[in-house]
Structure formats: structure tokens, C-alpha cells
Amino acid sequence: MDSAEFAEMALSLQVEPDLAETLDTVIDYARDCLACDHAGVHLVHNREIETAAATDPIIEAADRLQTELGEGPCLQAIWDEETFVVGDTACDPRWPLFGPKVAALGLRSILSVRLHSGDQTLGAINFYCTDVRVFDRDDIAMAQIFAQHASVALATVKREEGLRIAIDSRHLIGQAQGILMERFSLSADKAFAVLRRYSQDNNIKLRALAEEVVRPRELPPPD
User: Rounded distance, CA 169 to CA 209, Å?
Assistant: First the structure.
């Protein structure tokens, strides 16, 4: 992939509207980047590692093996914040449980690169080949540059989605306040105090409470 193709890829990643479509674009470009057979992305979510995107169900099976066995290059890339190269999964001594099993699936070579934004680890991107392949320095450099672009795109879309959720929550809580103000002749501060007290007393998130208020236009009965 030359500089012009990287520029086109970076632009494509930046214009995707949500996380799912960004991930799909990432794995499509990843496969082309190194001319490998498959690609997949692991993301860290709420302290758990999950397969967020894969070009083929075989990659999801390989990822499940890593999770079940607690070893593998993708997990290692996330834990150690490094790049890991597996020339032949069938005989790599670093992951004696994972290697033979993933080789039996037909995946013989893997290149795993950490995805990160600043000091925050987002996950890892993985390049797979069905034949034994020696990933050389150029392959590794290309994969790491690609991972940087992918990290920026994923961090941006996750931040934007988080912002949208926060804005939507504020609007929803504002609607609930307005309903209480109108129905009970309360000030804005008192209406919000009622919502917050009810939320705390009944152990319900403020956004969830606001949704309940807006839907039937009244406070739900306490548990």
C-alpha cells in the first residue's frame, strides 16, 4: 500500500458514521494492506476483550480460543502493548496451547499489533495467513502504520458516540424536568432535585428514570 492509498484509507476511515461501519472498513483495508487472508479486531470494553470485527467466522473461532485458553498473540499485544509476529502457529513455543489449535483451524501465521490512543489501549488488530509466512520488517512497519490510522479513527468515533449519548441524556433529562415542572408547578431546580432524589432512593440511573418519566409522563411507582 503506497502513500496515496494510505491517504485514501485514512479519509475513508474518518468519514464512517459509526463504530460498526468504521470497524468494517478497518478490517477490509487491513486485509488489503498486507495482502493477508483474514483480519480481525479485538477491542477492550469494560475491562473485557471482545471480537469487534472479523473478515471470516474462522477468526471469531480463533479469538475464542485465545480467550478460553488465556494465551495468544492478540492478547499479548494488548497486555504487553507490543507487536507480536507468529511465523508458524503450529510450532511457536510462546503459546503452546493456542498454537496447535489455531493451526488446526487453518491459520498458520499471525501478526498482532496494539491499537491505542495516547496511553489508552483500545485493543489489537490481527493479520492472518492460511499458509506459513515470514512477516518481514516492511510488513511489520506497514501494519504498525495502519494500526495508527485505525486507532485514530476508532478513538474518534468512540468519543463522538460517547458525546452523542451524553447530549441525548441531557435532552432526555431536560424533557423529564419540563414534564415535572408543568405537572407539579415546580422550578427547574426543584424538578431536577425530585428526579435526582427518586433516582438515588430507587437505585435507578437518572437517564433511565428520565426515559420512564417521558414515556408515560409521570414518575414510575417505587420498587
Answer: 11
Dist CA 192 CA 53 (whole Å)? 41
Looking at the structure, tell me whether residues 13 and 35 fall in a common domain: yes
Q: Which residue has the cell 504498525?
A: 144
* pLDDT tens per residue, range 47-72: 788 888 899 999 999 999 999 999 99
Three-state secondary structure call for residue 187: coil
CATH number at residue 10: 3.30.450.40
113 and 55 assigned to the same domain: yes
- Are 11 and 74 contained in the same domain? yes
Can you give the residue range of the structural domain that contains 118? 3-160
Q: For 3-18, what is each residue's pLDDT tens digit? A: 566 667 666 666 666 7
DSSP assignments along 105-151, one per residue? TT--EEEEEEEEETTEEEEEEEEEESS-----HHHHHHHHHHHHHHH
